[in-house]
Design a protein that fits this description.
Layout (H helix, E strand, L loop, with lengths): L10 H18 L1 E5 H18 L4 H10 L3 H14 L8 E8 L6 E7 L1
Antiparallel strand pairs: 1-3, 2-3
Length: about 110
């Protein structure tokens, strides 16, 4: 994927972190993280919501290969994707919340709209 951020991690660690964050966002609808991580999570989340709108066996298998919890995939296909059936993209909102106290990293809340 050209133009992806490395986030100071090896590719395996970065992918595991993104999988966990996307799963958590789809499960809870909202997470707080740094702005750069939020931008990467938004790209991945929107990809899987668009995939879920097809609702066929192949897209379910692709989602299960990335998202770490089966019940979250079920929620994605049964609740989240139908909600965005007539919307083309823009399923997530990133709201900046200011610097983090410890290291002044720019923080943001990412949520499903």
């Amino acid at each position: 994927m050209p133009g992806t951020r490395k986030l100071g991690r090896t590719s395996d660690h970065r992918m595991a972190m993104l999988r966990a964050m996307v799963t958590f966002l789809l499960e809870n609808g909202k997470i707080e993280t740094t702005v750069t991580r939020a931008k990467e999570v938004r790209a991945m989340t929107e990809k899987y919501i668009t995939l879920a709108k097809d609702n066929n066996l192949n897209s379910k298998r692709q989602a299960l290969a990335f998202i770490t919890k089966e019940d979250v995939v079920k929620k994605l296909f049964d609740e989240i994707a139908p909600k965005y059936a007539e919307v083309n993209g823009g399923y997530c909102r990133i709201t900046k919340t200011g610097p983090r106290r410890g290291d002044a990293a720019e923080m943001a809340i990412i949520e499903l709209i």
